[in-house]
Amino acid sequence: MIKVEKPEIGLKPYPHLIIEDAFGDSSLLNSGFPSDSEFIKSFRMDKDMTYPMKNYLNLIIRNKTYNALHNYIYSVEFVSLFLNFFKDEILKNFSEGNLLFNPFDLPIIGSPYELSMIKINENLKDSPFLFPRLDLGYGGVDYGKNNGGGGVHTDNYGRVISIVYYVNSPKDMEGGEHRIYKIQDNKPLLEKVIEPKEGRLIASLQTNTALHDVNPITKIKGYRKAFYLAISCNKRIWKNSEDWLMKLTKNRDPQNIIHNGKSLKSRFKGFIMRKLLS
Ligand SMILES: [Fe+2]
Prior knowledge:
- The protein is of the alpha+beta class.
- It contains 7 helices and 14 strands.
- It has a single domain, classed as Jelly Rolls (Sandwich).
- Helices cover 22% and strands 26% of the residues.
- The model is unreliable at 273-278 (pLDDT under 50).
- Residues 149, 153, 155, 162, 212 line the site of fe (ii) ion.
C-alpha cells in the first residue's frame, strides 16, 4: 500500500519521516472510519479499538479498505519496509550499543501478538522477535492532556518504530499537533510541530531521546481521527542510557519498569501493605 521507496529521513532531533497520502486515497479510510459509538474509552486516545475487539473485527469484515489495511499492517512486508526506511540509523544505534538486539537479525511475526495491552516479556530465556500493531482512535477536547502519552515522553522500551497516520484534517481545531523535542541542558525543548492532516503519516525511531507529545486539544469541531501503528520487540530492545535521560520519560524510567506484571513502585507498595497487614 505504501508506494514511497525511500522517504527523506529527518535526523534532528531524532530519526523521523513524514509521508503524505501514505496509504493512497484517504477518502475511503475516512468515510469507512467507525462511528464514535463503536469505540471504547482508552488510555491512549479518547477512544480506540484494536484487534481482536468485536467492533474491530466487524470493521475488517464489513469494509474492504480496512480489511486490506489490516492485512497489510499485520505483515512481514510492512515491518520490513519501515525497518529499511530507518536502516542506517538502526544499524548506527546497534553499533553504538544503544540497541540490545539488531532488529535486522530478529524474526518478524506478521500477525497480531500484543492484543489490547502492551506486552513486553522480561523473561531472558524467551527469544526476541518483532511484531506490528494497529490501533484506530478518536481524540476530542483535552486529548493530549492526560492521554496521548500524557505529556512529553518516549514510547515503551520494546518499541522500535512508532507511526501515526491522520485519517482526517480536523476542523476548527486548536492544539492537536504532534510535537517533537530535542534535549537541551538535560531538559526537553520543543523543536518541531507537525499538523494533523488527512493522509499524513509520521514515523519515528523510538530511541531513548525520541521525546514527543500531543499538544492538548483545546477546541475542535468533531474529532481528530488517527491510526497508531507500532513496530515492537516482545522484549526490551533499548539499552538504558544515563539516569537523568531515562527519568525524562516515565515509559523508560527504571523505577517504572514492569517485572512480572508489576512495577517496582507497585511491588514496594504491595510489600508495605503485606507488612502492615501481617
Ligand atoms: Fe507516544
